[in-house]
Amino acid sequence: MVVSADIFISKAQMFLCCGKKKKRQIPHSSCLDMAVQIIAVDLGLKPAVLYDLNSACAEQIQRYVSSLHEAGVLNTTLRIFSISGSCLVVNCNLMKEHLSEVLEKKSLLTVDVCAWKEQPSLIVMDSSTKHMVKEMLDFIMDKEDQHPSIIVVEEELHERWNLCTLFGILLGYPTSYWFNQAQSFENCLSMTPLVVNKVWVCWPICDTKHSSCLYSFSVPEVLWAEIDTFIQNWVERLRGRFCKQTVLIKLSISKETVILPTVAL
User: What family name appears in the similarity comment (predicted)?
Assistant: First the structure.
């Protein structure tokens, strides 16, 4: 399917601009990056994307996504999830499959980054994380029957969840950070070498190819030897899904090691 970039740019400018005095126009490159993310969710290449383009509210994002569906450039009815002030655009069918797989096959590496630790370590997915994933899956299945365009996860539900771990899972990352939030929200990643993994794709539009980052996640370098094979398998499964579509091309992987004075999760 050949999709015009102009549609995505015009819809983003129409629905996503925000600002009290004067609505700030969104750069075309940012519109295209968001378009690639939405297309990837629509095609089933990722279960969800976190909207972080600007401070647009859930209603604006919903109107943007709905307008794309009405324009015929999306095949899947995507839902907007609002969790603790953050908005995700979600492919509910893929998300249900993904969460079920996480529960059944334990297809997630969890990295313990509690502040008191000398260095991060791999841990088995604990019972609280399993319960959180199960609650999220049940919540999606319950809300799906009601067909809401915007699904709000109430605080009484998510206040007992580790949102750092949850968002890593919802976004389809192969690894997710965990810490005991009953003790502290700090972590032990300060000045710790992190391998930043990025998955890149190209979107051929007109006579150019717009390159965009589809996934970006980090892994402590000290754990790389233990995690490398798992991530390679995750990449191969992604390649398998990627080969089934023709909209995006040239999937590639990049890695770099960074050391940061502070790491916010």
Answer: Belongs to the UPF0739 family.
Alpha helices in 106-222 (DSSP H): 127-144, 155-158, 163-170
- Going from the C-alpha of 49 to that of each of 19, 81, 87, 207, 246, the distances in angstroms are 23, 10, 9, 27, 20
Mean pLDDT of 171-197: 92
Which residues, other chains included, contact 109 with Cβ-Cβ below 8 Å and sequence gap of 6+?
122, 174, 175, 176, 227, 230
Nearest to 10 by CA among 95, 76, 68: 68
> How many C-beta atoms lie closer than 10 Å to residue 239's C-beta?
12
What pLDDT, in 10s, does the model give residues 106-119? 768 899 999 999 99
Report residue 180's pLDDT band, with 50, 70 and 90 as the boundaries: confident
Q: How many CB atoms lie within 10 A of CB 210?
A: 18
User: Could you tell me if 235 and 253 are in contact, meaning their C-beta atoms sit under 8 angstroms apart?
Assistant: yes
DSSP 34: H
Supply the pTM of this predicted model: 0.93
Helix/strand number for the chain, H first, E second = 8, 10
Give the CA distances from residue 19 to residues 53, 56, 100, 120, 252, in Å, rounded to whole numbers and listed in that order: 13, 9, 40, 41, 36
Main-chain dihedrals φ then ψ at residue 3, nearest 5 degrees? -115, 135
Please report the sign of the dihedral spanned by the C-alpha atoms of residue 72, residue 203, residue 43, residue 154. negative
Tell me which residue of 37, 38, 49 sits closest to 76, measured CA to CA. 38
